[in-house]
Each structure stands twice: as C-alpha cells, then as structure tokens.
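Q: What residues go here?
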C-alpha cells in the first residue's frame, strides 16, 4: 500500500466512535471519506470452518469475506452520501482502489490487535460500558442511539466491538509513542518555492545581490501557506516536513545562511535559516507528527514480520 494511503489509514484506526457521530481524521480539504474502521477480531480465533469464505489470513488469523464485504459496502455508502457518483469514471476509480484499501485497513487492525495481545494490552468491559453509556447520553438517549445504530446497519454488538478495536489501537499508540521526546533541536526557517530551476536560480542570484528574502517570497513563492508571511515556516524539528530535502538543507545551515536551489517533489526551494535552538519544546502539531511517525514505523515493522495470505 502506498505510504500516503497507509499514513491516512492508520490515523483512521485511532479515531474513536462517539455516540451518534464519528470523528474523521481525513486531512482538511479532502472530500473523500476514509474506509470505515474495521470491526475488532479476537487474536485467538479458532480455525475457520471448512467452506467459510475468507478475504485474508493474518499470521493464521482469518478475516472473513462477509466482514470484508460489509466493510466495503459501508465505504461505498459513505462515498454516495458525500455526493460522489460511482457510475462516473472518477467513481469507478475510487471503487477500484477501495477494495484493496479496505482490506489493508482490516489486515492492519488485526496486526495491531495481535501485538496488543502479545503485550497484554486489553480494553476491559468496564471501560467499554462507561464510554458507551456516555455516548448514549450525549447522543440523546437510548431511543436515538438505537435509531442511529439501525440507520448505519449496526447492532449493539457491532458498535461495542468497533469501539473496543479503536480503544485498543489508541492504547497501543500511547504505548508505542510514550518514548517520543517533547523537546528537540529545531530551526526557524523560511523558504521560496518555485516551479522551474532556472527561475529559482534567478531568484537566488537576487538574494545573493542583497534583495529582501521576505519580499521575494511574497512575490514569487508558490507555497500559498507561507508566502503571505514572507516564506516563514516557523520552528520545526527533524522528521516532520513533507519535503525531506528541504529539512536536510535547513539543518545544514547556520542562522542567516541561505541554501542553494534545493529540488523536491514540490518544485525548487531556496531556504534561509533564521534561528537554531538545540533543545526547544515541540509544538503540539510537531509532537503529534513525530508520534505518528513513530507509530507508523512500528506498524510497518508488524507488516514486514507478518505472514499474510490474501484470497481476493
């Protein structure tokens, strides 16, 4: 599965269902609903009965075809509810991608739950009872809660198991990322993003001739998020930028220095470091990004060590 998709799906897995609403972790600006979070399965399941169709086996644990088809149907329904026409070329492309993505989500959840079982991490019935009771109260009472379940095609057992699955993932997230530090070396940098290397070289020459960096960023930069502030990216540690080449170049500079032209998947950058701090508290966003990265690395290791059989 492509890294970008897997990063999105693992974020989805730590989202907790709350009553008659589900909080999505889909990146802002995206109108495509994420594949639904899979129903939890107990790691110590018995061998499936002969003839019961399977979608996959994960370290000997089955994912049943019926569960997969239900999950895929929920995703398709979510697409329709968002206004997507599945009969169009775009809709057909989404459906083609959805099949593998949904199965990958289900496989990944099984891997996380198997790891939790090895480490004796559990979600108790008491924890579930308390959260479900809160959800019922916040959702308007038992009748509205029951109506919501029916509208989504869920039973109370479905809801309980999905909640257990998500809480277990949250516990593993906390466990795996507990050692991520809250402070780190950081640089305060700004950049100018350009589409063509020749244009970037021209802007760089203007900077070397004494032109104002912020003014050129406002005039030329393609990065709409930073150009209004003169290209200012603020403080950031290693390991969070989408363009690692920019990050590497920034950490190679001292305050006041300007990089050469740096190529990335986004275009051509010119970077200037304004400050360096050897041990600065991480912002909430930066700390979250580093924790997500640590968890993603851990999950990737589970994938690499697993024996997975797909039957679709």
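A:
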């Amino acid at each position: 599965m492509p890294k970008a998709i897997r990063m999105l799906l693992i974020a989805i897995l730590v989202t907790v269902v709350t009553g008659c609403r589900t909080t999505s972790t889909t990146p802002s600006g995206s109108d495509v609903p994420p594949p639904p979070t899979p129903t939890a399965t107990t790691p110590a399941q018995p061998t499936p009965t002969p003839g019961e169709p399977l979608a996959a086996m994960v370290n000997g644990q089955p994912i049943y075809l019926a569960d997969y088809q239900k999950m895929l149907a929920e995703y398709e329904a979510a697409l329709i509810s968002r206004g997507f026409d599945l009969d169009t070329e775009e809709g057909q492309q989404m459906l083609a991608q959805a099949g593998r993505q949904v199965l990958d989500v289900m496989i990944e959840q099984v891997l996380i739950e198997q790891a939790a079982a090895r480490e004796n991490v559990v979600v108790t019935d008491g924890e579930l009872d308390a959260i479900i009771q809160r959800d019922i109260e916040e959702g308007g009472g038992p009748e509205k809660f029951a109506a919501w379940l029916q509208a989504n095609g869920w039973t109370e057992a479905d809801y309980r198991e999905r909640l257990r699955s998500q809480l277990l993932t949250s516990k593993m997230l906390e466990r795996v990322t507990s050692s991520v530090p809250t402070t780190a070396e950081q640089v305060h940098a700004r950049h100018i993003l350009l589409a063509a290397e020749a244009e970037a070289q021209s802007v760089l020459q203007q900077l070397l001739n004494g032109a104002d960096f912020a003014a050129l960023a406002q005039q030329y930069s393609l990065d709409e998020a930073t150009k209004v502030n003169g290209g200012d990216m603020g403080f950031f540690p290693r390991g969070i930028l989408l363009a690692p080449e920019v990050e590497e170049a920034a950490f190679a500079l001292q305050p006041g220095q300007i990089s050469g032209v740096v190529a990335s998947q986004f275009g051509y950058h010119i970077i200037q470091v304004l400050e360096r701090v050897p041990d600065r508290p991480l912002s909430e966003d930066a700390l979250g990004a580093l924790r997500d990265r640590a968890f993603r690395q851990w999950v990737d290791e589970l994938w690499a060590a697993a024996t997975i059989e797909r039957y679709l």
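A: Context that may help when evaluating the design: The chain has two domains: 3-179+291-310, 185-280. DSSP finds eleven helices and nine strands in the chain.
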